[in-house]
Amino acid sequence: MLVTQAFDGAPIMELPTHSEGEIDAMLARAAGLYRNRAGWLPAHRRIEILRRLARLVQRDFEIFALLIAREGGKPLTDARIEVARAVNGVDGAAGELEHLAGVEIPMGLTPASEHRLAFTTREPIGVVAAISAFNHPLNLIVHQVVPAIATGCPIIIKPASTTPLSCRHFVGLVHEAGLPPEWCQFALPEGNALAERLVIDPRVAFLSFIGSPVVGWYLRSKLPPGTRCALEHGGAAPVIVDRSADLAAIITPLVKGGYYHAGQVCVSVQRIFVHQDIKEAFLEKFTAAVEALRVGDPVLAETEVGPLILPKEVARVEEWVKEAAAAGAKIATGGARISERVYAPTVLVEPPEDVRVSTKEVFGPVTCVYGYGDMDEAIARANSLNFAFQASVFSTDINAALHAARTLAGSAVMINDHTAFRTDWMPFAGQRQSGYGTGGIPYTMRDMSHEKMIVLKF
């Protein structure tokens, strides 16, 4: 498999793929580890490995940042932020493991339960198969691999085919940190059919999937009985800009939320509903800020917006924008490709409600601005899709802000911040078609373990 630079298609490295026999051997090794309870790694050793791993990722900070920028196209400034988050995530998992415990179950509440002591312990759920996405090629891997290490689950990790190098290097550091190699295996199956067979194998106890909803929901439908899963998809994140919003304060976070990593973020700002009283003033400031973004090679320190992951994604975004313009949307800025792999940051004004930029996840550097007169009407429009992930409201009126926070659909609503805000310890969950289960390292650790109750009669 040839790995190329997202910005210009230049070759980086050739990696071998794994055959059906090699994938089956990985599954057999992982299943054997889990069956051998005497060989499970004790918690203190897992903590030591994770602490050492955090130091190793910090040691290779610039190696990771450059890999992320080259294979994934994320600007170097943002790539460095991703690496910093990865270090914190690994270290945080070690700390979380110190508190991952069972509870006492009260006995003696009825005559039949007298003379008993009951408590739960937590055990690893079993073999984890993880499929990751390209847009955060290190930190998404951390969110899938590290909880498995922390809870004692053998894991087989398959990165996105466009961005395998960050994952491969991370898995190497996992082994260098002291985790025996068979506990964390890196997989590049020969084609999608073999990747599917990996995750639906009955030896797999838990599927962690980050990617498109079409693939995620399909894989869930194929899981054998007993296999648990977590799916992280995307949406078309809405923002409500109240008439009381401070325009001087909101432009910078909205531009960041909409054009960070060229909009290739599952909770990227996409649909901005602005009160009619301030719409024109907002558009003037917002458009000027978008036009000022520096677009180019992601390895350059000054670049703020890089390429899309593949040329076909540029073609798709271009087609969606043309469709919206033909249906009556105004292109305030952008609206054209810069190169085969780079699309200009684009602002669309009042695209119709039924075109794809209004109804589907763009996953590109495009935001849509809609005017509204009544907040409840804007919220109804924001909630009208089959996606619900993160949303936001900008307002200096606390009553309006809390009203929007209560009534916007989604698992998280940001007040006076953009929709793409995230920390690695907070819950991160898509609702409706946006996902299944709850992400975030502490929450994934709970998903990758289960409680066993022990009852002692005396």
Molecular structure report:
There is one protein chain. This protein has two domains: 2-233 and 434-457, Aldehyde Dehydrogenase, Chain A, domain 1 (3-Layer(aba) Sandwich), CATH 3.40.605; 237-423, Aldehyde Dehydrogenase, Chain A, domain 2 (3-Layer(aba) Sandwich). Helix 9 (247-259) links the parallel strand 10 (237-241) and strand 11 (269-275). It contains 15 helices and 20 strands. By secondary structure, the chain is an alpha/beta fold. The protein has a seven-stranded mixed sheet with strand order 12-13-14-11-10-16-17, with helices on both faces. Strands 7-6-5-8-9-19 form a six-stranded mixed sheet, sandwiched between helices. The protein has a three-stranded antiparallel sheet with strand order 3-4-20. It has helices at 20-35, 43-59, 61-72, 76-97, 139-151, 165-176, 192-199, 213-222, 247-259, 279-291, 311-326, 356-359, 375-382, 398-407, 441-447; strands at 2-4, 11-14, 104-105, 116-124, 127-131, 155-158, 184-186, 204-210, 228-232, 237-241, 269-275, 330-333, 346-349, 366-372, 387-388, 390-394, 412-415, 431-432, 435-436, 449-457.
